[in-house]
Structure prediction request, 253 residues.
Amino acid sequence: MTNINKNITLNQFQELIEKNLNKSLDYMSDDFNYQQKQALELFRKRIFLEEIIEETISFNKSLSWDNKNDNLKLTKSAEELIEVFKLRSEVYAQMGYQNDFPDVLEGLNFDLFDKKSAIIYYKINQEYTGTCRLIFDSTNKLPSDKEYSFDEIRKKYGIIGEISRNAVKNNQSKGLGLEFKYLMAGIHNVFVNNNIDITVSAMRKEHYKLFSKFGGIDIIEEINEYGNLKTPCVVIYWNPSEASTFFKKAFLK
Prediction:
């Protein structure tokens, strides 16, 4: 991917596009003005992608990652990150989650929270088959803050993180598979090596039965729906340092 000229900052590009995005040229046709707006919108999204890639890779390179599994990785290159964004898009399209987790660019699923996320992926036989992320709390807060405020949790714990963007290829036919096992091991790895105090997450209520076996986990709130997901969900917290014997045997060996 060609980097944008560093002599002009990404912010300056964004400001320029915002000023011109809704401007029309009176002496040009409506079709021309529409195409101009579409082009500017696409360019704005491309700039946002450049920004996400640069800051996300920098953040992941700053993390401590103690891992011996050659198939489980922390994203540290633009190429890896793009493959992760493609995998998210593919899996969410298959699961009908486009409204809940929409692509910014067609075929690429990413958002603002990636900038402060440990993004983990599982790759086997040159194919990316699973990914998830652990978002570190920041001034942007966390995605689930839109549904449930974690401010009381923040008062109790120093650093919190949210587990999200779980995506496993062909999950319907393979069950949980190795991907889920190793991705959760990866989350545990990031947690214990980077001074996070607690993790939070939102999930379908029906999925909580398995997670309840992890140890150090409990329900914060039960909600009837999550965003556009019209199904009972739970908001949970999990302290991986209190992992159960079951978790250690099933996920860490």
The chain has eight helices and seven strands. Helices lie at 10-21, 30-61, 78-95, 151-156, 171-174, 177-193, 208-211, 245-251. The two ends are 38 Å apart (CA to CA).
